[in-house]
Design a protein that fits this description.
The chain is α+β, with helices and mostly antiparallel strands and about 90 residues long. It has four helices and three strands; from the N terminus they run αβββααα. It has one domain. The radius of gyration is 14 Å and the shape is globular.
Length: about 90
């Protein structure tokens, strides 16, 4: 399964789990600060996943997988997923 399809599937799952996903952002926050990076955070009680455009697809996949493993376990257990997608969602000591 291609990485783009895995990413698309994980984006769909994140949406089903009620996560807010934002993509984009090549900007730097300031001269002395590193560029924006993908990550997971809470904003006013909502779980947000930010996928930086400057991050490679495997980094974006892992960011989504971590968010889903940590915050949507019940949804993942109830879904049949392709093995290539499931492999990214298996516990990895987060």
């Amino acid at each position: 399964m291609e990485e783009a399809h895995i990413l698309e599937t994980l984006l769909d799952l994140a949406g089903e789990a009620g996560m807010k996903v934002r993509t984009g952002g090549r900007a730097k926050l300031g001269e002395d600060l590193p560029p924006v990076a993908s990550g997971v955070c809470r904003v006013r009680g909502e779980l947000w996943v930010v996928l930086a455009a400057s991050d490679a697809v495997p980094v974006q996949i892992e960011t989504l997988a971590v968010a889903l493993r940590q915050h949507a376990g019940e949804l993942l257990e109830s879904r049949h997923l392709p093995p290539a997608v499931r492999a990214h969602l298996e516990p990895q000591g987060d």
